[in-house]
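Today's session is about reading a structure prediction critically. Students often jump straight to the picture, but the first step is always the sequence itself: look for stretches that repeat, for charged clusters, for runs of hydrophobic residues. Only then move on to the predicted structure, which in these notes is written as discrete structure tokens rather than atom positions. Here is the chain we will use throughout the hour.
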Amino acid sequence: MNSRLKSIIRKEFIQIFRDPRTLAMIIVMPIMQLFLLGYAATTDVKNISLAVWDQSQSTQSRSLLDAFRSANYFSIDYSVYSADEYRDLIEAGDTRAALIIPPDYERQLIEGKAQVSLVLDGSDATIGGTALSTAKLIGQFYATKILTDQAALTGRPSAFDPPLDVRTQVWYNPDLVAAYFNVPGVAGMILYFITALLTASSIVRERERGTIEQLIVTPIRSWELVVGKILPYTFLAFINLIEVLAVGYWWFHVPIRGDIGLIFGLSGLFLLSSLGIGLFASTIANNQQEAFITVMFTMLPSIFLSGFFFPIEAMPKVLQYISAIIPLRYYLVIIRSLLLKGVGAASLQPEILALTIFAIVILGAASARFRKRLD
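Below is the predicted structure for this chain, in token form.
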């Protein structure tokens, strides 16, 4: 290796170590991908939130609930006392399923013809499919156990027909079509990608070309510069949203059950957070490559921890807590609920409040830092 080649290699290493963002991307990004793919990328759904309407309140009904608990696939989080209660919980996304035990369950079980109902939220095809198959298996296992116990008591072979039948109903997506879950998620990712990445690179591009100084010396105010730069990309983001909804509706047959005005209004609320992220990235980046890297640091956690691909319920508790600070998580709940469930704003109050807080904090901090950078 000659001295010229050594000098070039040495120079390149010096430049790498002098660029902390590139160095962070080289060192931190693989570790981040490893942990996200290792822990978040899982379809092993467990602890599915379950609401129970136990109208029997008998020993046999409590035994059935114990069977659901011991399977570790369901977590009995709510006890309800009417159909309206579990319907509201499912519409708000607080629970994924509801188990309804009839008042005469004990008598039906003795007669060998007991039936219980399980209502499932099919808006998430992965969770809905797992809950559907698991509930049927639990019912079959419990029925087999009853037959075995009866045979042991009577000393005679048990009847062939199982004494318990779990009847399932899948709401919002009866066929558990994956596109019903994925298409709204794509809409959220496009809104985030367009506004955050392109807003950051647009402002940094002015700085690279030296035209930002020319804009500063003009009578234009700083807020006018910011709004003028981000509004075109906001418009493009809404155009993309219309495209995704149109293609999803006409090609993939994804229903649009919610109010269109509410869909666009809450999408605009989500855009404020994305614009703030892009604006903040522009204040710490000196060129478009740095802006891209900065946004990428937020994009990877958003993809894996927002529920875009993988159910949040299947993630470790630590990652679930981290996902609480990701705006995309709340928007995906909103867009999927509006499209598939047709709910109103009242059912989405926690998500709307979270996005409002994110918009105020992120966009406010980014705007303040951007004005300081201009000064």
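Discussion point for the tutorial: Residues 177-374 form one domain.
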